[in-house]
Amino acid sequence: MKWKVACLQMDIAYGVPEENYKEAEKWIAKAASLADVIVLPEMWTTGYDLTRLDEIADKEAERAIEFLQKQAVKHQVHLIGGSIANEEVDGVRNTLLIVDHNGQLIHKYSKLHLFQLMDEHLYLEAGKDESGFELDGESVAGFICYDLRFPEWMSKPVQEGAKALFVVAEWPAPRVNHWRVLLQARAIENQCYVVACNRIGADPKNKFAGHSMIIDPWGEIIAEGGDEEEIVTGEVDLGEVEEIRKRIPIFEDRRPQRYR
Fold first, then answer.
1. pLDDT value at 147 more than 90
2. Which of 7, 87, 111, 170 is catalytic?
3. Which in 16, 54, 92, 233 has the greatest CB count within 10 A?
4. Averaged pLDDT for residues 159-172
């Protein structure tokens, strides 16, 4: 399976969902002719306006799901629909939404690791979902920002067959080097593709790094964004994953009983 993928490295209006939906619609339309799979950034509907989530969070993600379904069918693309502030019965979660080109919601994943440095633990509930799902019959997985720092969590779906890891983020500019190194490390150690979409711009407390990346299973960078709004594109050939895993059979050589 080969996919052309596009990361929408967009700015996000702080706490203004209406403006962000309009912008996302424009960016998806621009990317639709370039890609089979389009990836949006983390918290793209609201940004990190956490103190106003009672006003601006999306109840049961209904509006975001409907929007993504409409866009997926209109443009005949799969959407790794970024994450949104999702108001559930027991609290608000940072939830990634996956919609296929038929408009089917095929997976939801809420962020497991809450980032204390940006006060997520004060306003959000941790997720309970598994990260893995199937897209076009291929095993892949989706993660959100801070999850990137937890290799055990990101390797779990790979042990179950995942060939590509999608990461959506609002990663701050001061730690852009961590972003780049960790993404390459996750690709190398899991012998899989990593497709990572980060936002650009700033909010009242943070400046964000951009540098969205598409990385192959050897850790080589296929494409990387800069520090401006742009669409970052590249091709993912999932057929290469098994070949690489045969050449260096790290999964056969694992000794998990000794890792505890």
1. yes
2. 111
3. 92
4. 98
For helices 62-75 and 17-31, the axis angle rounded to 10 degrees is 20
Pick from 66, 22, 29: nearest CA to 44: 22
Is 192 tagged catalytic?
A: no
CA angle 178/233/151 to nearest 5° reads 35
Whether 196 and 154 have beta carbons less than 8 Å apart is answered as: no
What crossing angle do the helices spanning 151-159 and 176-190 adopt, rounded to 10°?
30
The one catalytic residue in 7, 23, 42, 170 is 42
Question: From CA 5, how far away is CA 24, in angstroms rounded?
Answer: 16
CA distance 256 to 260: 7
Active-site entry in 145, 163, 170, 197: 145
- Considering the chain, what percentage of its residues have pLDDT values greater than 90? 99
74 is catalytic: no
Residue 244's alpha-carbon distances to 192, 213, 241, in angstroms, are 9, 20, 5
Locate 250 and state its tokens: 């790290």
CA angle 184, 154, 253 (to 5 degrees): 85
